[in-house]
Design goal:
GO terms for molecular function: siderophore uptake transmembrane transporter activity. By secondary structure, this protein is mainly beta. 15% of the residues lie in helices and 38% in strands. The chain is elongated, with a radius of gyration of 35 Å. The termini are far apart.
Amino acid sequence: MDERIKIYLLTALPLFFWSSQILAQKNTRINSLAQKLGAYVNNLAPEKVYIQTDKDFYIVGDTIWFKSYLVNGVTHFASDKSNIVHVELLDANGGMLVKRKLYTDNGSAFGDIEIDDSITEGDYRIRAYTRYMLNDEDLVLFEKKISILARPMTINDKYKSVGLVNAEKEKKQEREVRNSQMSKPNVQFFPEGGNLVIGLQSELGLKITDEFGNGLAMKGHIFDQKGNLINSFQTYNFGIGVFPFTPKTGTNYYAELNIGGIVHRYSLPMALDKGYVIQLKNHGSQIIIKVSSNIDQGLTGTLVLGHLRGEIFLKHSKINSSKSSYLIKFPTSELSDGVAHFTLFNQQGEPICERLTFIDNPENEIDLTLTTDRSDYKFREKVDLNLSIADTQGKPLQGDFSISVALDKSFDKNDSNIKGWFLLNSDMGNTVENPYYFFGEDSNFRKKLLDILMLTHGWRRFVWKSFLLNESSRPLEYLPEKGVMINGVTRAFNNRNQPIKALTTLSILGQDVYQEKRLTDAQGRFSFGPLVFLDSVEAIINASSSILGKNENKKISIYLDTVKTKVNIDSLTTQESYKNTFPIQEELIKEYRAKVSDLEYSPRVNALSEVIVKAKKKNRKESIEEELNKMTVYGTAQNRIIPDSIPGRTSRTVFDVLTQVPGVQVLGTFPNQNVRIRGMNSFSSSGDPLFLKDGVPVSANFVQSTALNDVLFVDILKGGEAAFYGSRGTNGVVAIYTDSGQSFESGLKEQPGVANFVIPGFYKAREFYHPNYGGKKTYHKISDHRTTLYWNPEVIITEKTKTNLNFYTGDLPGNYTLRLEGVTSDGKLVSKQYSFNIHN
């Protein structure tokens, strides 16, 4: 064999095996990463919440009407994890003022918050989240700013607000000081892909801000260390810009800004001698990626992986390449809209370059028609609204939407919408200053600016290091909430550290009594739920150890778990700057004064003359009886038990004292006891009386475990008294009334084996009222100064071609905005506005 061939084989074969081994290791690691992303999408996908409100500016006395949308953070379908959304109203310092707990089984829920007189004037925030979202190390929760106006006053014949007038004056002075004494701007540089590399061209993004973080639109130049002009640049909205740049060996560079004759210089990032660069061009319907390296054979074994919210759509590997660059072209026609993430991996499977871009697939466009029958209306005229939605092929779409119609100046033009939040800001760490801007009118400039934004912001939800180190599979601290869970533990009555295994019974009071039994584990733990209630309900848990086959019935204490969710508010609160302030809304102040005027001069409000009432003062017993009779529907009762007068009531139950009433007998022993009332049927009959708790029918099992100390009074009705309840009172009535804040002696003490408590239910939204001026009614004479004319959170669109809605205008002239938002059944996001005018 030729000696040269021998030498080649001896050197090439080890290199081949080494390369194969490296590629195998790399493929194993990439496949593992792909599997983890798949598991993330299928099992650990995040949740996202968005809130639409009826408007953005309110006055004291208004109601904030809102709807929440809860979706899977990857697909934007309705989330199948959580069924509970927490909505909070926060003050400027992050303190929680109001909380609403909403239940949803289809991804959406709606509610309302009344703004009472205790609310002071200023800026507030609405925050929404699920407990499952709190598992994220870096919380990205939805927050929306609203402004509340109060205390109107007259200034130069115009109504303004004391607090906001002063704030407006201070901020105007502050702006003047800032403009006249601008300090050195802050400049940040963002090399495309992550690093500048000697001899390789890439895009260099930059962001210029003032000391308060406000973006600055400026022009500047790039010079080398010898003062030679290399390039010029310009920043636009939000202070962001980009320019092409190729660093050279042994050369340093700096950017220069000239502000009023004062020159500021900033050093550019140092370039790597050897490395990789990834460049991306987004043409809307097509993406072009260029991968470059100045390392010999550096592109061999590299892989470009692209994913959108965790779903992989691109895996392009280069098994062998002697070139310094290669191109990847692919269409976006099959992709969803949103932030796409491209990563370049080296031979060892390590991420070395990253690039973000926003996918705006033309195939995902929605043809939404939102019109009224006219563009101009007079006071109190009917408005017919036509709505239709279809895909690009004209096929009608289904979805869940909400509509608000309010005075145009009630809306903040810079506020986010459902597309800006779900597609952009929620995946960019809530750092995009005005996401609505990028989803306004369609223009090439906005698309270009959005691509620059991708260069100057980091990715929040995906950190490759975490995935590679299995940190993404850490145990969840907060499980998805499906409903109300009632958890607790049973312990020895006199020793909280001694667990007692027991049979627990949960009894929930309502129109119908609901009971459920659970056997605790060896440590005394029990759990009931998930349960769903609108409004709060009273409940009792009983625990007994005698049913476990032992004669001894140990005294048991029941301890319920308390679950308090605390959100790290400090990390979410952003500093407000002058550019985020808004002008005084004069129409809102007029509305406030109109409401006050209507109250003062309305013919429906009558002033009463002073009346002097003389009566004999009742003694304490008579006063108590009178108050108790007010609580019943039948008045007084011949046989009434008031526990206040019974010695040792803290250790007795209702059944224990029923035997003190003539003609009442309690048969059996706990927990199998029955009550018979003489005169209704014989004691030998099997008919239990009707048991009532605060007027609601309950079972005998429930009553026998009710501690007497929790009872205000008990009425035993027999004969004609029981006739009030008809056939249900055939066997008599035992009516129990609990202490609901009217007790004449306060103080509840712990009872063995019994725990009484109230289960806070989910908030039940009120119905938005909008008048019908189609006929003559007395209320038509009252002035109608509503700034929100219409709010409908339940616009469910089916495959019908059109949906028709209607409402009436009020007495407040001006331009009005109709805002529709929602999600289609296939996860497409919809946001649309329409304007019309009202005049006298």
